[in-house]
Amino acid sequence: MKHNDEDEDEFDEDEDEDEFDEDEDELLSLNMNDIFEELMEENPDLEIKLHSKAIKSNPKDVDSYFSRGVIYFKSGENDLAIKDYSKAIELNPSYADAYYNRGLVYSEIGVNDLCYKR
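and the corresponding structure tokens:
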């Protein structure tokens, strides 16, 4: 069978275009994620609203309680952070990060005896 170099070049170009499209889609997606994260960091109130809306729509959304707790803690709203971490722990008693973060908040406010509370 005769080998045609032109056909191979054409095939390789198509393959390269497909790889480029996938890479471009991934870059666009990453850029959108970066933009979203930056927007959220600049506007914690908006992020709190988004997590609150998620919780309202699914009151068992452990990750939203945890994430909102992180934002509250970063904003200095320690009582609200403790409340959200505690809710995350109530919903998932094996959520180690929620215990850890709640302990950090207790330590921050000087209530060290509660740092190890279950």
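(Above: one complete record from the training split.) The mean pLDDT is 80.
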